Amino acid sequence: xxxxxxxxxxxxxxxxxxxxxxxxxxxxxxxxxxxxxxxxxxxxxxxxxxxxxxxxxxxxxxxxxxxxxxxxxxxxxxxxxxxxxxxxxxxxxxxxxxxxxxxxxxxxxxxxxxxxxxxxxxxxxxxxxxxxxxxxxxxxxxxxxxxxxxxxxxxxxxxxxxxxxxxxxxxxxx
Length: 174
Description:
This protein is mainly α. It has helices at about 25-45, 45-60, 65-85, 100-115, 115-130, 135-150, 165.
């Protein structure tokens, strides 16, 4: 049974990865909500999820820039979705906080933009629970680079120790 756009997904959502809550700026929101909306669209088959992402990107970046960045976002999420050994979990579209998988996705893009490859690889592995990382990393790098070209850089504070989050996926049904 397919989930409806915005239907609750993850029961294990996290508010932050440290003692201080992170307050996302527009770039983290673009990445987190973009990832959430695109995954929701794949899982539900509802293009309205993708249309919401398009409106967000278009409003922030302008339609011309948004076209390239959203295309790259779509390629990255498709690669994550294809490589993942389990269903990628996302919060409902209206949720204010990011869940574990969304935070790992944001961390991947931050790690790429700040050239911390070990962190990026660890986040990708924790997200997809699979060693076949090359395509996911390639598309994440392309997306991160396009965001950077629009002067959109995710704070390095979003880079997490993904190894601490690998354990939580080991008992999820595949």
